Amino acid sequence: MRTLSSVEELEFAPAAMPARVVIAPMSDHALLEATRAGDEDAFAELVGRYRNQITSYIYRMTNDYEEAVDLAQETFVRLYRAAGRYQTTHAFSTYLYRIATNLLYRIATNLAISELRKRKRRRLVSLTGLLNPGDGGEAVDFNPADERPLQDVNLVETERREAISRAISTLPEKYRAPLVLRDVQGKSYDEIAAILATSEGTVKSRINRARNFLRDKMHAYL
């Protein structure tokens, strides 16, 4: 038996390291299946994955952040209620965007006529007040001088972005949705076609028309 002359000669066997357990994240399909079974944590995970995307999409459609937050929440409520009807034919995100889009279309359909009537009434009252003074004087053209200070580059760019958002929100629904899905959300043409339940050819045509509309509206900023 060999005698050790120093502690350095002692060889230690490497300690066994505990194996790392890597848990792969659940797929969207699996999370929705768990949601069907009553797993609220699974549903919370789905909301966390897609809340920002859906809120951004609705905001671009409405140009109203508070309304976008509310409608995004309503989208997930509808998703939860309809979980039992979900089929894996399409990607989960496609299904979710379709719910959001249908919600927007329904709201637009219900509110469009009444909102247009309100705007016409407000515009009529405003023009009547401006062009027909209440002091008995003659009607005058209203063309006030622009006394605003000169804008710097940053302010101009901010106003340009806001103008683009406003312009997008004025597009007809059938053009606005594919444009936002393509140019803001980065969806492919086939994904958009699935979300809007139409053909890729129709999607491309509507996006092209939407871009032309925007180009006309934004002519002053280009």
Give a summary of the structure in a few sentences.
The chain is mostly helical.
List the helices and strands and how they pair.
Blueprint: H1 28-36, H2 40-62, H3 65-81, H4 92-131, H5 153-170, H6 173-184, H7 189-196, H8 200-217
What does the model show?
The protein has 222 residues and is mostly helical. It folds into two domains: 26-131, Rna Polymerase Sigma Factor, Chain: A; 156-222, Arc Repressor Mutant, subunit A, CATH 1.10.10.10. The chain contains eight helices and no strands. The chain has helices spanning 28-36, 40-62, 65-81, 92-131, 153-170, 173-184, 189-196, 200-217. The longest helix has 40 residues, at 92-131. The chain is globular and about 55 Å long.
- Mass-distribution shape: globular
Strand content: under 5%
| Measured distance between first and last alpha carbons | 90 Å
The Cα radius of gyration reads 29 Å
Which ranges are low-confidence, i.e. pLDDT below 50, for 5 or more consecutive residues? 1-13, 123-151
Level-2 CATH architecture of the largest domain: Orthogonal Bundle
| Helix amount | 55-70%
What is the name of the CATH topology of the largest domain? Rna Polymerase Sigma Factor, Chain: A
Estimate the mean pLDDT confidence. Answer: 74
CATH level-1 class of the largest domain: Mainly Alpha
